[in-house]
Design a protein that fits this description.
mainly alpha, Tetracycline Repressor, domain 2, 9 helices, about 0% strand, TetR family transcriptional regulator
Length: about 200
C-alpha cells in the first residue's frame, strides 16, 4: 500500500514555479528545486519523476493559475479596454518585479522549447490562449465600433501577441516605463476608429 504524501503538492508546485521563473529551466538544479520545495531528493523523485516532469507540472500550474486568472479578470472589460488593459498589466507586472523575471511562459519559449517537443507544445498552447484573448476582444470591438476594422482582427491579434512577447523580453533587460509604454502605443493606435471627414 502506497504511503500518503506528507506535503502539500500545490504549495510545492508553487515553490517550483518560483524557482523555474527566477532561475530558468537550465540553471535550476534538481537539488535547488527540492530544497525550495521543502522536499528530500528521494521525495522529489518519487513525486515528480525528474526535473522535466516537474517543469511540465509547474508550467501547467502557471498557465492554469496566473495566466488564466489574468485573462478571466480582463475578459470582464469592454473590448477596447480589455486589449489595452492587457498591455497595461504587462507594464505594471514588469515594473513591479525587482528580480526582472519576465513571464515564465515566454521565458520557457526562449529557454527550453527547442529541446523538448512536449514543452514546445505546452508553450504554444499558452501563447495561443493569449492570442485568442486578443482575437475575441478585437472582433467584438470591431463589431461594436470601438475598434477600427481597417486591419483584420486575426492580424492584429498576432501583432498584439508579438508586442507582449517583446515587452516581456525587454523588461528583463531594462524595466523602464517609458520604454515599455512606447512599445505598446503604436499597436494601440491601430485600434482607433477613423473619424469621418468634417462636413463642409
Amino acid at each position: 500500500m502506497a504511503r500518503p504524501r506528507e506535503f502539500d503538492e500545490g504549495v510545492a508546485l508553487q515553490a517550483a514555479v518560483d524557482g523555474f521563473w527566477s532561475q530558468g529551466y537550465g540553471a535550476a538544479s534538481t537539488r535547488d528545486l527540492a530544497a525550495r520545495m521543502g522536499l528530500t531528493t528521494a521525495s522529489f523523485y518519487n513525486a515528480f519523476g525528474d526535473k522535466r516532469g516537474l517543469f511540465m507540472k509547474a508550467l501547467d500550474q502557471y498557465l492554469s493559475g496566473t495566466l488564466s486568472q489574468r485573462i478571466a479578470r480582463l475578459d470582464r472589460l469592454p473590448p477596447r479596454q480589455a486589449v489595452s488593459g492587457y498591455l497595461a498589466d504587462v507594464v505594471e507586472r514588469s515594473l513591479g518585479d525587482p528580480q526582472r523575471r519576465g513571464c515564465m511562459l515566454i521565458n520557457a519559449a526562449l529557454d527550453v522549447t527547442a529541446q523538448d517537443p512536449d514543452i514546445r507544445e505546452e508553450v504554444a498552447g499558452g501563447l495561443g490562449e493569449i492570442r485568442a484573448f486578443f482575437l475575441r476582444h478585437l472582433r467584438a470591438g470591431q463589431a461594436d465600433g470601438t475598434i477600427s476594422p481597417a486591419q483584420p482582427a486575426e492580424d492584429l491579434s498576432q501583432l498584439f501577441l508579438s508586442v507582449v512577447v517583446a515587452m516581456r523580453v525587454m523588461a528583463r533587460l531594462h524595466a523602464d516605463r517609458d520604454q515599455l509604454e512606447s512599445m505598446a502605443r503604436p499597436a494601440l493606435a491601430l485600434l482607433d476608429p477613423c473619424e469621418p471627414p468634417p462636413i463642409p
